[in-house]
Amino acid sequence: MPDLLLELRSEEIPARMQRKAAGDLRKMLTDGLVEAGLTYEAAREYWTPRRLTLDIRGLTARSKDIREDRKGPSTKAPEAAIQGFLRSAGLASISEAHVHSDPKKGDFYVAHISKPGRAAEEIVAELMPAIVKSFPWPKSMRWGPASAKPGSLRWVRPLQSIVCTFGPETEEPVVIDFEVDGIRSGNVTYGHRFHAPGAITVRRFDDYAAKLEAAKVVIDADRRKEMIVADARNLAFASGLELVEDEGLLEEVSGLVEWPVVLMGTFEDAFLEIPAEVIRLTIRANQKCFVTRPQGQEDALSNHFILTSNIEATDGGKEIAHGNGKVVRARLSDALYFWNTDQGDLPDLDTLKSSAEAFGLDLNKPLDQRMARLDHLGVTFHAKLGTQGQRVQRIRELARAIAPLVGAEPKLADRAAVLAKADLQTEVVGEFPELQGAMGRKYALLQGESPSVAAALEEHYKPQGPSDRVPADPVSVSVALADKLDTLVGFWTIDEKPTGSKDPYALRRAALGIVRIILSARGSLPLQGLFDAALAQLEEGSVQRRLAAFEASQAAIDSGDVDGEQDVDNALAAYEAELRRDVIAAAGALKADLLAFFHDRLKVYLRELGARHDLIDAVITPEADDLLAVTRRVEALGQFLDTEDGKNLLAGTKRAANILAAEEKKGTAVADAVDPGLFREDAEKALFAPMNQAISEAGQAIRNEDFSGAMRALSVLREPVDAFFEKVLVNDEDLAVRANRLALLARIRAATDQVADFSKIAG
Q: Which NCBIfam families does UniProt cross-reference here (predicted)?
């Protein structure tokens, strides 16, 4: 079977785009091949900073001939329908169609369409120009004289050459000839930009990869990563150090080089007084280098760093390492200045006293000063939700309310909430926003804050993704919940909710974070109460802002006399009453909508953990606001339905529900209560007593949040329900007996509905 080799070579592709671009190229071409009737055995993509490559093995040389019978309209159909059929079938006239007969439908037209197969070379040559011109780069550019022409080629960086060869291993491959904006495909590529810039003629992939390797190009990105990390580990080990590994940086660096050469640089020991996170981020962000640490010391760094060059220098890389070291030292000098500045006093302390009083801050402490400045400057959080200072005040009140619910000391939660956003005004975070929270923790410890308070300053942002850890310290939990709840409730009040795939304020992530925190805390935290606490802060602030605006607009009414002042006071009081009525009216719908949003996040999370979607739907109700109780109920229900008792009870319950639904639809009378005096069969009597017992015990177990106990209470119904349906005819001729038996079925449904809506469970 023939193999296809494709290479698109350009100037340097940004590292962050390479992996996806190679995958896009593979998908676009293989999808096109399959749609054209070709098959292939395997396809693999490769990439370097200067090329995207595809190796497609076992591609069929020709697509199959296709014969299709396309049914058309009746021979008596209107002319317009017949003409439409001819156009769709590609027929010139009705004489090219065939007439078939059907005993019921009569005569109708059929087009026998034959399409001969096409050579793979022809198909690829047709597909590639369209793929190149429509390639989904996040950003692309035009270049050269042709860029002035409408519709000229766009590529991420100037496209320089195309290799496209095709053929079996036993024969000389052919070049699939096509052209894209003056760039014609061929069998010539080029090696490393500096070490081997000359032309290289290639045949198929194995030959291509070997020749490029000889020309100092490693085509396999994963192999480049292995080379970099192995050499970096060995180089660090030889110096008595160990590499601080960074998968994200490794991915980026492997996309910056075609021939990785690993070197070691140094900087002065004096810079090690900077926190390790700052050193690491400075070197990573500015020089794309790895840091090292003394062997066995997790929290310390050394003054050696690892860099990856794209060339083999004649001096062994000494000048490259020295040059990188100069830049690293300059960057670390800036970082050291930021670090020292953040621990000193602000120059404008006198202007911060009112903010310090409002938040109970100590202006002798650097972090307190930064929080006072954040409030004093009136930094906007959102135009409709006030300043950062106002938001911190809301989070503070909310954290104090949540603290007792999660076992946190309210005073510590209050202090942590007040300082939570203070590091936004530090120099280090201004330079490295990624260190937000982490620097707050460090500065808090330096000024003698409680370890729980310091931890909360970093952990209240967590979890920031599905794999991020959840805060465990009660103070961190209270501030994290307060921060996320204020965000969610706030944006709901101004109707800035996620729509479709758009979620600019990361509200889905915030809700999932709350879900994970609540489930990890393993305590009962009903959402409605949390919503009320968050809304109270937001609503009062909104009311006061709108009252102030209204009062200002009414100032003209006050002409200075007593009557004018009284008119303004009356108007203001009436407007405030109206505002508060509107707030109360809107709160119910807002909370219901926000709770439904949380239900969606909980469903997504539980499904990712392996829970059945039908069990989640069966358990959750529009009013369910205790997420931990919902989760435990799903777990208990799943375990119960895995037993024979559970499976049989599910079948019996669904049967009872179906009969009831059918009879209720027909308007059949159902008794309001079960009358034992109307029982005629032993199976009815045998079901009634355990039914009442199960309803009582299951209800009590649910009130005690013992959901496994509720399932055990229901399990006793398995045999009497089975016996009932086996021996009792529900639709008895006696209408009173029938209504009584339907009431008994309603009791079965009521018993199970305490736990879940069994009608939503598959099976």
A: glyS
